[in-house]
Amino acid sequence: MRKTLIIVLAVILTLALSVTSVTLAAGGKKEVNLAQEAGQSWLDSTVAVTKEPLEWIGAQLTAPQVYYDLKGKPNAYMFAIENDGEVVGYITVGSSDYGYPMFEAADVPPPSIPSADEVKSTLKRDLGLDVASVGRPARLLYLGFDNIFAVYQADGQEVAVDLKFDVAVRVSNLTDIVAMPSPEEYKADKEAAEQAKLEELADSNPTAQSRSSNCLLMFHWCYKYCADCNPEYKCWCGPSSGTSIGAYYKYYHSPQYTGLPEAYPNKCPMYLELFDEMSTSCSTGGTSTTNYGPGFVQMTKNHGYYNFSHVTVKWPSNYYPNIKSYIDSGWPTALRAYRFYDDIGGNPDFPPPKAHYVAIKGYYDGWHGYDRVLICTDSYSQSDWLYLNYGILGLFPWYITIKD
DSSP letter at 281? Predict the structure, then answer.
């Protein structure tokens, strides 16, 4: 079930202050304070409705970190979520240009700044750079969900180390084309969503009366179990997120699916079978979106269930109402979030990941009904409660809904 976070606040503060001493001035103390107030308001109002995670009830935001876009302008502020001296999560709030929205929040510690030795090892492995020393990060980059970097000066060039997936890339190879919408695009999309909601209410459309929050009983299947299953299969987010969805159907959705393979708490059969049926490849980069749904359905057929199907949608616009409808029907959806930089050379044994799967188990519309927040589980970060702003997913998300 829910894991206990044991990282103390002092550690997070130390990591945050190592970079924010110079970036707070750039972001502006007043702006940081306003972002913190907005994030606290979102946290309090959200947990009042969803009641999850329980550790967030009465929690406070601390330890701000300032993040930038590729043009060098502050675009996001990340805070640790603290309760009774313990870090119980993080929240990222957009800058004033975005109107201080919640970008993402999760029940896991904020990404930490790697040590100098870790940075040197990553640069050597991924870029072939053998640097004698590295200093503190020059700045942090927020380029959309799953695209968070620390920038360093190394060998006469700027390099960025991914704070979630531990890969390095030259800053010159990064592009913001598909990472996340600009402030103008984000605000226009949000206004369109608000207008659509108002029109639904005016027309008394039944879909407008759907619940403001709904969440399926689903938890992450942890990457750490992979080594216990079969080291040759490694840890891939496709079958891992699929195992979270499959475990929901087996253990929580209906007693008729008890014949599906075991999955929890650290059972391997479902993961291993999905790895095969999804044609997950360790050499070519994980699980194809076109194999995810068919692979899951084939896994269920292998155990005598012929009623499952999938809906796979590529790069849709305004798909949030569909996801809500599926959740209300008891059907979870896998989201493939795009990782937007290309293979940058270096050691071919460590190509950067191109995408990452998380499992959507719920939604939260906020007080006004148009906040459009996805509630997910993330096997990689071991998060059971990842709140993700639908409006920042950029241009190229895929959605694969598993229906029974």
Answer: B
Q: How far is CA 49 from CA 56, 215, 364, 367, in A?
A: 12, 11, 9, 9
- Same domain assignment for residues 389 and 360: yes
Q: How many CB atoms lie under 10 A from the CB of residue 219?
A: 23
CB 316 within 8 Å of CB 396: no
Residue 3 is assigned to a structural domain of this protein: no
pLDDT values of the chain reduced to their tens digit, one per residue, 404 residues: 333 333 334 344 444 434 444 445 455 899 999 999 999 999 999 999 899 999 999 999 998 999 999 999 999 999 999 999 999 999 999 999 999 999 999 999 999 999 999 999 999 998 999 998 899 999 999 998 888 999 999 988 999 999 988 889 888 888 654 568 899 999 998 888 888 777 777 765 555 445 588 889 888 876 666 656 666 656 788 999 999 999 999 999 878 999 999 987 667 889 889 999 999 877 666 888 899 999 999 999 999 999 999 999 988 888 999 999 999 999 999 999 876 554 444 444 444 456 889 999 999 987 666 789 999 999 888 899 999 999 998 767 899 999 99
Are residues 338 and 397 in contact, defined by beta-carbon separation less than 8 angstroms? yes
**Domain extent at residue 200:** 183-403
Residue 178 lies in a domain: no
Tokens at residue 268, please? 């391997």
Q: Is residue 54 part of a domain?
A: yes
* Same domain flag for 217 and 337: yes
pTM more than 0.70: yes
Q: Is residue 4 part of a domain?
A: no
Task: Please say which residue of 84, 106, 128 terminates a domain.
Answer: 106
